[in-house]
Amino acid sequence: MLFRIQSYLQFLWHSKNEHGVHSPFIFLLLTQGLYNKKIKLPVAALSTYKGVNSKKSRFLFKIVRYFSPKSILIVGDTTFEKEVIALANPKSNIDIESAIYNCIYFSSIPTNSITNKTVEQLVLTVENDSFWILEDIHANPAAEALWQTLKQNPKVTVTIDTYHFGLVFFRREQAKEHFIIRA
């Protein structure tokens, strides 16, 4: 528990909002996607109300809605999150085997099950507009170590730490940069 408190305090100290961001890509993501109050999670369409009002559910809905990925791979057993993702982008193919995934969502699964080999295999399934969403990147020291490993991967160009989620982008046209954002 002490680890999470210390991690959160460090996050608050270093985090910024849209005014501290100088990347047009990230600025648009924040202003038109994550901070957009008009985008709301349709609660009535969910089969269960578990976690509906959580910040995590709303964030996941907004990020998938903003990018509208065609193919999504979900790593971990996440029935509720799968339903939120499907609501955000009904036209996407979720968990259908594909050579290229536009979005890969890692639920808060034990980070020791995600090895460097797994990461390298999944990196082969991305293209320029692909992104990954990792849940609970500050849950424990192993999760933070995985996050640091991903940030240092040469194919990763942009990472965003929102404390509860980590976003990883593979945009070749953008310089390598890491953002810590209050979302």
Structure report:
With 183 residues, this protein is an alpha/beta fold. It contains 6 helices and 7 strands. It has helices spanning 2-14, 24-34, 55-67, 79-88, 116-123, 141-152, and strands at residues 71-75, 93-94, 103-106, 131-135, 158-161, 165-169, 177-180. The protein has a 7-stranded mixed β-sheet with strand order 2-1-3-4-6-5-7, with helices on both faces. Helix 4 links the parallel strand 1 and strand 2 (93-94). It starts with a helix and ends with a strand.
Q: In order across it, which strands form the biggest sheet?
A: 2-1-3-4-6-5-7
Percent helix range? 25-40%
Measure the end-to-end span. Answer: 22 Å
Beta strands, count:
7
Radius of gyration, CA atoms, in whole angstroms: 16 Å
Global geometry:
globular
Tell me the fraction of residues in β-strands, as a range: 15-25%
* Contiguous helical run count: 6
Secondary structural class: alpha/beta
* Low-pLDDT segments, ≥5 res: none
Largest sheet composition: 7 strands, mixed
List the helices and strands in order: HHHEHEEHEHEEE
- Average pLDDT taken over every residue: 84
